[in-house]
């Protein structure tokens, strides 16, 4: 985890936070809170100067009154991030980037602090332990959004948070967001026609009062049991690589092996919540479908069996640890 994620996780653990988080009460544990009317395009301000070096001088947080309820919840969590992240100091004025008047390194630092506070807010309102239960397998998007309701986040904040939670293969469209929201590692589709053609499921769901269009382009897949050891799996991959190279497609055996290993490693790092080999296989198949440079290897006989073995390995479903070739 990065430092901001660790701070959020520690706070969740310390206060045993569960959705829907009492974020106002949580903020008041750390700062004085006041609601104000102002004409500025700014949802909240945290006054931090001096407070972190003098424990008796509590930070002060000002929140713009009459915000939409769930937007206010996110603003409170965001300002809490500024308060508890140790290197956020001075007065932090939360404004849209096009409203900031500073330039140079000050602007960069402000942008960095804002993104950190936003990441913190997402992890407090949607704690990792709860997030892990949203999609331990390739669940239908409507089911995921229904579970997400409990976090009491705005629709936009909620589906943006799903990017860090869901395995590759989900796309969400919020009417007020400029870009589509894709879960980590999801293949890019140039237009809606391509996306619809690739979709296993598609539909719309009313979520927190907003109609969300969604697409699911990966799913749990049936695992084969033809490969039973790491040594055999390595042999199969090498045979596939040698076959591709023999066709003169422009790869080397080592290059193919390294690219396959890198793709599997990237998939593993972004899908910590998956629990079954079937889900892992669905994830791997989707990841490799986006690798045009590996198309000749992916289409080779035996590659599905190889990925099935790797999926079982990732899920901890192999029969024993002391398999031939493990050393």
Short description:
This protein is an alpha+beta fold and 327 residues long.
3D structure, described in words:
With 327 residues, this protein is an alpha+beta fold. 45% of the residues lie in helices and 12% in strands. It contains 13 helices and eight strands. The strands form two sheets. The protein has a four-stranded mixed β-sheet, with helices on one face. It has a four-stranded antiparallel β-sheet with strand order 6-5-8-7, covered by helices on one side. A hairpin with a 7-residue loop joins strand 5 (170-173) and strand 6. Helix 1 packs parallel to helix 4, helix 3 (69-84) packs across helix 4 (104-125) and helix 11 crosses helix 13 (303-315). The radius of gyration is 23 Å and the shape is elongated. The model is unreliable at 95-109 and 322-327 (pLDDT under 50).
The mean pLDDT is: 88
Please report the distance between the alpha carbons of the first and last residues.
Answer: 29 Å
Query: How helix-rich are the residues, as a percent range?
Result: 40-55%
Task: Estimate the global geometry from the Cα principal axes.
Answer: elongated
Strand order, sheet with most strands? 1-3-2-4
Coarse structural class: alpha+beta
Succession of helices and strands: HHEEEHEHHHHEEHEEHHHHH
Q: Which radius of gyration do the C-alpha atoms yield?
A: 23 Å
How many strands appear in the DSSP assignment? 8
Model regions low in confidence, pLDDT < 50 over at least 5 residues: 95-109, 322-327
Largest sheet: 4 strands, mixed
Give the number of helices. 13
